[in-house]
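Intended use. Records such as the (2R)-3-sulfolactate dehydrogenase (NADP+) entry shown here are meant for training and evaluating sequence-to-structure methods. They are not intended to support clinical decisions.
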Amino acid sequence: MFRDMPTLTLTEAHALAVRTLLRCGTGRAAAESTARALVGAEADGLASHGLVRLIAYGAQIRAAKLVGDVAVTVTRPRPGLLAVDAGHGFAYPALDAAVAALPDLARSQGVAAAAIRRSHHCGAAGRPAEALAAQGLVALLFANAPAAMAPWGGNRAVFGTNPIAFACPLPGRSPLVVDLSLSKVARGNIVAARQRGEAIPEGWAVDAAGRPTTDPAAALAGTMIPLGDAKGTALALMVELLAAGLVGARFAGEATSFLDAVGEPPGTGQLILALDATAFATDACERFAALAAMIEDQDGARLPGTRRLAARARAAESGLTLSDALLAEIEAV
């Protein structure tokens, strides 16, 4: 007979995450920010960016690869620019600081940008972009990550999976959010498969010898297959230049892993661009809605993020179902 897996309310899941992070040496503010991000990703059905990350985060805090209690600093090098230093701590408090400051700058000038350096894993990249779109902005986020993809035609990883997120407001409803990794799948999906003891589909990654593999451990030791083949690696190059080169962060090939507690902090970066949605055309949001309607009017078509919003609503009503094994690992951190 199968026993039902435990279910936590969102409040209980948040408390679990905060408690775990504090136990490892995280400061209260960073723990609250990180817990919001992890529980939010879990609720959205993005489990690879959810509570499972507590295991790696806890180990990294204890090894001083991740600074658990550091003050984020924000400076203004130019009128429309924010320079955010995450201090080798969690990315989430730095992203929160950027999201808090960007709206006023973007509304006053039409456009603003925040560059985050000495950062870490940014989690579900669509969440900060969505938070800005909910305040009437069009947002783009670029994040680099430790090396996991080879350049097209090469055999050594120099690019991260490098997520790109976009969000814009839609009148009377949740923002439209596009959030994608530049590998065929997010690397977190392979991490999750390894933790579950499951094989991965062929075509997600190759092993260290460049051979297709369904073994998640071999995939993590090898390289990811890019989204759209050569086009995906071209976009990954663009993100490296924007989120690391431009902001003063480490390139993927210079960063240590987000997944283990070995070595020094990764020191990766993020770049957020925010535009006032009405800066060029006062009816822009209505135009966004018109295009959304053209898509949704077609049978079988849907806007990006539809499933994420449905998962969020279910989680708010019914809570999060977690495996006994995951809960045991978190409690052991």
